[in-house]
Predict the 3D structure of the following.
Amino acid sequence: MIAKLKGLLDETGTDWAVIDVAGVGYLVHCSSKTLAALGEAGEACTVYTDLQVSENDMRLLGFAEGSERDWFRLLTQVQGVGSKVALAILSALSTGEVQAACAGGDAAMVARAQGVGPKLAGRIVNELKDKAGALPGQDSVTGVNTPAGGASADAVSALENLGFKPAVAARAVAVAQGELGEDASESELIRVALKRAAG
């Protein structure tokens, strides 16, 4: 799977960009916030990506930050939220605002996004309320900032995949980072966090 592209910004449209990586142009669909962060055509850029494959389509989504990609993946897990709606939400709100809206049950804030009605907004905040604290940004449980898309975020994701609840995973990784320091690798964080989470 393509996780990240690093190259030159070739061209952009209303909701897409073409990234030239060693002569190969990748079409990535982006939120307006990501498009604004990419810069001007010809400039070097990096996008975190998510590849979505369906029966009749294959689409590469691009994000300026790992945290935006994490929220995109979480949003698209909600019934009725496809890639277009998720990008619309991330165009209207920053990841911090989405996180605050979900944690606080503020459906009206999510409903500001184009194509998101009150009913869908309510479903989004209800389903993601318990997961809001585990994603990169301000951890609501520990008050520790997790670097967007860094080793900490990857370690939290790994623990969740092992079956730990998001809040437990985030807390364990935060403790591990406190012990090991900011430069700790993902594998080191996972090893220490597993001991803390299990304990």
User: Anything to note?
Assistant: The two ends are 34 Å apart (CA to CA).
